[in-house]
Amino acid sequence: MSTMQAKPWVYETETRLAPDQGITHPNPAEVSLSIRASALVFSDPKSQALLSLIERVASSNATTLIIGETGTGKELVARRLHDLGPRKNGPFAAINCGAFSDSLVESELFGHEKGAFTGAISSKEGWFESANGGTLFLDEVGDLPLSTQVKLLRVLQEREIVRIGSRKPVKIDVRLIAATNVNLEDAVRAGRFREDLYYRIKVVPIDLPPLRERPGDILPLVEYFLRVYRNRLHTSVPQLTPAAIHTLLNYPWPGNIRELENTIHRALLVSSGGVIHPKDLHLTYIPIKLESAQPNLQLVPNKDKSTNDIGNQQLESVLTNLFEQNFPDLYEFVNSLTVRKAYDYCNNNQVHTAKLLGISRNILRSRLKELNLIA
Question: In the CATH scheme, what is the code of domain 45-211?
Answer without folding.
Answer: 3.40.50.300
